[in-house]
Amino acid sequence: MRKIIHIDMDAFYAAVEQRDNPGLRGKPIAVGGSERRGVVATASYEARKYGVHSAMPSLTAKRKCPALIFVPSRSHVYRTVSKQIRDIFFDYTDLVEPLSLDEAFLDVTVNKKGIPSATLLAKELKRRIKAETQLTASAGVSINKFIAKIASDFQKPDGLTVVPPERAVKFIEGLPIEKFYGVGKVTAKKMHKLSIYDGADLRCWSKEKLVQYFGKSGNYYFDIAQVLDERPVNPTRIRKSLGAERTFRSDLVSNQDIYSSLKEITEEVMRRMRKANVTGKTVTVKIKFADFRQITRSITVDNIVNSFDKLWELAQKLLLKVNLEKHQIRLLGVTLSNFDIGEVSTVEQLEMQF
Ligand code: DCP
Ligand code: MG
Fold first, then answer.
1. Apex CA 96: angle with CA 281 and CA 333, to 5°?
2. DSSP label at residue 329
3. 10 Å Cβ neighbour count for 69?
4. Does the reported pTM lie above 0.85?
5. Residue 103 appears among annotated catalytic residues
């Protein structure tokens, strides 16, 4: 039985800004965006009470919370803190897998300090993070990555949620399907149509049936539902690209469907880029046709791609290069690569499905 901890900093960018500028403490703030344009990278908990959240257009955020203070993002500071917390993790184990700047999985089954209780170890991590960065983190402790990740979100901020082995099944059973990491909005809807609303419902499904309805991802849904998530914490994972793709239940034919699907996928890529804090210079569009023939089209630009508008412009340009006439499209994907920072081990681990 493994002992896995997932740690995630609370309101990360906003907490750093409030730490470094006492005038912002206790106030509703948004990092990123401005009074007039852009999107919110994250909001302080004071602002979240008004419904302000990550990826919300600034204008909407300001309307929801008129007292909202916009603070510019300071990437280099967030990277420094990220490095500090990683160094703390390495004091306990080398099995550290960062998912983004502010979160990581740790396998502490065997740890450098010989601490037998993962709960005590998580408490110590939280205490040290607080002492060394003046910031709070939330932790989830369990027997696999899936449960640990969801648990860390349960009692934010400054939370500690432990799901011991004997409670793992109950935990999964009671979990609404939307909370399953890796189940996107579209998949959740599809599951609702099949009367799958929570883990208990999902647990009634065989692997075969899930694969039949959800393709390859069906295997993953089965494994997490049956508490068979054996994915190791992978400390060497360095991603060189970041993307999203979607297989359609019925092939796309009309240009309108193709472009609107491509736009949704591009939006998902942008969300992941923001979350992972990466920008890059190469954009690739992948298309699989109904006959399974697959093509990719890439473009590399001189200036980094760091906005949705730019990414969308390039994705459309690439699609224009493809003759879509008389073709049915089975899969569309958008990928960003050629990152402009050297080390990117900070990208989301799971291939998230739509
Ligand atoms: N981020 C971003 N754009 C997004 C999502 C996140 O720029 N769409 C950045 C800002 C966040 C940081 O990544 O501070 C970490 O993301 P989290 O999802 O962990 O969110 P927070 O740490 O801000 O809040 P929480 O307390 O919910 O973890
Ligand atoms: Mg966080």
1. 35
2. E
3. 18
4. no
5. yes
